[in-house]
Amino acid sequence: MSGIIVVGAQWGDEGKGKVVDVFSAESDYVVRYQGGANAGHTLVVDGKKTVLHLVPSGILHDTTKCIISAGVVLDVEQITKEINALKESGILKSTDQLLISDGATILLPHHRKLDQAREAALKNEKIGTTGKGIGPAYEDRAARRALLFGDLFAPEEKTRKRVEHSLKETNFLLKNYYKQDAVELDDVMSVIATARESLKAFRCQDASLLIHKALNAKRSVLFEGAQGTLLDIAHGTYPFVTSSSTIAGSACVGAGVGPTAIDKVIGITKAYTTRVGSGPFPTELFDAVGEDIQKKGGEFGATTGRPRRCGWLDLVALKYAIRTNGITSLAMMKMDVLSGLDEIKICVSYKDKDGHLVDEYPMNSTEIEEMTPIYETVPCWQEDITKCKSVEELPKTAQDYLKKIEGAVKRPIDVVSVGPGRKETIWVRPLFND
Ligand code: GDP
Ligand code: IMO
Ligand code: MG
User: Taking the CB of the first residue and of the last residue of the chain, which one, N or C, has fewer CB atoms within 10 A?
Assistant: First the structure.
């Protein structure tokens, strides 16, 4: 078996897309297992940027098969746009490169409309969702009224009935509670008709079976997480989370493979921390250093363009991510962004409101908000590190930073990223079969 999960260890945007693109050179399959077009995964190759929302980040490699599995909420209009753009740029050359499971949940215009209406009504209490309809689509799935990808190919009357069922409640809410126009059934059916035509060539029916066969044949399968640990519906900073399970266990659930198929879980973390949207963030910076990191790191959302809140690396949160995901090793991203700072702070534990030391990440968002970070200050490197090709080439202060983190969280750092491009990657250990 060669199943590897790539999972965000923070609040998303850690650089999962870059890591998956780099790893895809050695992967036969890349599987998206949860989330939807709320994700924005950026790949940079020879200075050319590709942002993916639903298509797995293995797509730049012609021979890697990209799978969208049952755990994903599939915005059929967004994926069609993405596919067309990838065809135009010559990246998507064959329909064999992308496969969609019959079990994926279809996300439709009324899901987006309800998400946006809810956020607008929340005023100062907003979650800060991406407005992509993720919550309402997963709600429909849990309420057993969702349309699945396979249903697109069922007799028209059956599909219409299912959509009518989903629309009834959503329209009731839109009209009577949020005072908005209803979404017309015929309009949704026309979106579905277009999707059926544009996506039928990518239908793979049972993706779980395909992945199972691949693993049995010792092919390498990468499971690509979206969002990050602290946005997990059950283990994140609730209610400021997304509506799916984002932790590594979700790869098994979403893709339909057993936990014994997984050999490694690679946790992706930035050398600092960012968050988009509302919610607690103990190490957030509100000063010129935070602004500097935001500017140098280009910390603006790949999906919504919103500025990302920036702060120091939080080892209490990172240890929590290691525990809840079973992370076996780490990829440390964006080391280059810290270059030139006067000093770096690392949050090693918290103090609660009564002054007690807290080493374990609190389960409750209100408690997290009350935490004061305890920092260790370390020197920063001043050199440009973007050309470094090995850990030994990094300045000693940068090596010490990595060693300190490895020692504190007791996990090896397998990959160090020193720039957005593929080549700006230091491999400490091989990915498969080390
Ligand atoms: P994802 O959602 O986890 O895939 O991450 P995003 O693509 O949303 O955000 C990460 C951003 O950082 C993207 O713009 C990447 O191109 C960029 N990036 C990734 N790794 C590095 C790195 O090591 N250094 C710098 N400067 N940028 C990076
Ligand atoms: P990637 O895969 C960062 C955040 C939103 C909001 C919360 C709920 O690029 O790392 P939602 O639209 O999911 O209902 O929003 O989750 N969020 C992300 N933040 N990266 C993401 O994805 C995110 N996807 C959702 O900002 O706070
Ligand atoms: Mg992102």
Answer: C
* Ligand 1 midpoint to CA 44 (Å): 9
pLDDT computed for residue 434 by the predictor: 57
Last residue of a domain, one of 198, 216, 233: 198
pLDDT for position 74 = 98
41 among known catalytic residues: yes
What pLDDT score does 207 carry?
Answer: 98
215 and 81 part of one domain: yes
| Residue 280 Cα to ligand 2 middle (Å) | 14
| Same domain membership, residue 163 and residue 241 | no
Give residue 433's pLDDT: 64
d(CA 29, CA 119): 36
Same domain, 235 and 151: no
Confirm if 145 and 165 have CB atoms less than 8 A apart: yes
Q: Is 111 annotated as catalytic?
A: no
In this structure, the answer to whether residues 191 and 209 fall within a common structural domain is no
Q: Are residues 322 and 286 in the same domain?
A: yes
- 198, 217, 236 — which closes off a domain? 198
Q: Confirm whether 434 is domain-assigned.
A: no
Whole-number pLDDT of residue 5? 98
State if residue 44 touches ligand 1 by the CB under 6 angstroms criterion.
yes
Shortest-distance Cα residue to atom 1 of ligand 1: 13
What pLDDT score does 276 carry? 96
Residue ranges, the chain, pLDDT below 50:
none
Cα separation, 113 vs 126, whole angstroms: 15
Q: What percent of the chain has pLDDT over 70?
A: 99
Amino acid 1: pLDDT = 59
Atom of ligand 2 nearest to the CA of 40: 9
Which residues, other chains included, contact 312 with Cβ-Cβ below 8 Å and sequence gap of 6+?
A: 272, 273, 283, 285, 344, 345, 346, 347, 373, 375
- Residue 62's Cβ-count burial label (10 Å; 0-12, 13-18, 19+) is exposed
Active-site pick, 21, 41, 110, 414: 41
